[in-house]
Amino acid sequence: MSINFQDRVVIVTGAGSGLGRQHALSFAARGAKVVVNDFGGNRDGTGGSSEAALAVVEEIRKSGGIAIANGANVTDVLEVKALVEQTVGEFGRVDVLVNNAGILRDKSFSKLELQDFAAVVNVHLQGSVNCTKAVWDIMRKQEYGRIVMTASAAGLYGNFGQANYGAAKAAVIGLMNVLHQEGFKSNIRINTVAPMATTRMTEDLLPPAAKQALVPERVTPAVLFLSSEDAPSKMILSAGGGAFAAAAVMETAPVYIPDTDLSPEYIAQQIGKIADWTTAVRYENADQEIKRFLELVLSAR
Ligand code: NAI
Fold it and tell me: Residue 118: enclosing H or E segment and its boundaries?
């Protein structure tokens, strides 16, 4: 099976550097018409220029690929609207959206200003919402769409000093879970990558050996797979250094406690059984979980 993006139109946000740049180059190398979006700011989201996106477009064109640059800030609804209008005006459709743009403002929670919390959530979560909303009806009408969210181990598992970032990264998974339900009938598939890579975002955090191993090129194949025609949907792939793993929310089998025993003390006593991970399953949707609870509760009462 070969994966190509011939005649597919792909928007990659935050594609002026790091992972996004590599995604854009790789989509173009496989035939996509790529919209390289980047507002060209600093790592903390300040500043901005269109040079970063233009440089990547230049690179793609030099290798014979097709690309245009866009300098929208993904937090600005009007600029995002213009990004999608530019894409459709130039290429006629939008097949793939990779929500990759991101910033960092790390601080332990006690030192974190609320405005730094809001700024990070605004780029990662609201930016992904803005871009997804702007392409959603186009994808629904054309009955084809592939969307990739970018999460992080900080959101899946927690990381000291990243309350803002971790919260925003976990939130895009919730967004994926719901949009998977709503988009599937229109052939919109939506997945999440949780990358590890040496970029300006992580260069001062990684030891030298890790830096060399974790080049963005070793993450991008996961993004191409997750946005391909035969992509899964609602999948989370962790990817770094050429290693890949699937992550998921799992839940243990429900344990019923009759009213006669119902108390926090009884839960404490039963917690080993309640949190017995050997019984864990994945639910396809919230309904499945509710049904399972109701079956147990109604049969026990
Ligand atoms: P990066 O800093 O090299 O790239 C992020 C790009 O997003 C920059 O070019 C920046 O200008 C752009 N950007 C930021 N805010 C924007 C906005 N409001 N509108 C448009 N563009 C904007 O960082 P990197 O590492 O390539 O990050 C890419 C994505 O991967 C981010 O979502 C990041 O949170 C995520 N990630 C990266 C990890 C890593 O190990 N590098 C780990 C986990 C997640």
Answer: helix 114-121
Residues 92 and 204 in one domain: yes
Q: Are residues 84 and 209 in the same domain?
A: yes
CATH number reported for the structural domain that contains residue 150 in this entry: 3.40.50.720
Mean pLDDT (the chain) is 97
Which pLDDT score, from 0 to 100, does residue 130 have? 98
Q: Is the dihedral of CA 116, 117, 120, 126 positive or negative?
A: negative
- Tell me if 53 CB under 6 Å of ligand 1: no
Whether residue 4 lies inside any domain: the answer is no
Please indicate whether residue 199, judged by its CB atom, sits closer than 6 Å to ligand 1: yes
Residues 278 and 216 in one domain: no
Range of the structural domain that residue 287 is part of:
264-300
In this prediction, the residues of the chain whose per-residue pLDDT falls under 50 are: none
pLDDT of residue 44: 87
The pick from 23, 83, 196, 199 for probing ligand 1's pocket by mutation, whose C-beta has the most ligand atoms within 8 angstroms, reads 199
The alpha carbon of 263 and the centre of ligand 1 are apart by a number of angstroms equal to: 46
Q: What is the pLDDT of residues 205-233, one digit of tens each?
A: 888 899 999 999 999 999 999 999 999 99
Distance CA 12, CA 79 (A): 15
Res 41: pLDDT:
83
pLDDT at 43: 84
Cβ of residue 202 lying under 6 Å from some atom of ligand 1:
yes
DSSP β-bridge partners for residue 82: none
What's the structural domain count of the chain?
A: 2
Establish if 84 belongs to a structural domain: yes
Q: Which residues contact 241 (CB under 8 A, 6 or more apart)?
A: 196, 210, 213, 214, 215, 218
**What positions carry a catalytic annotation?**
165
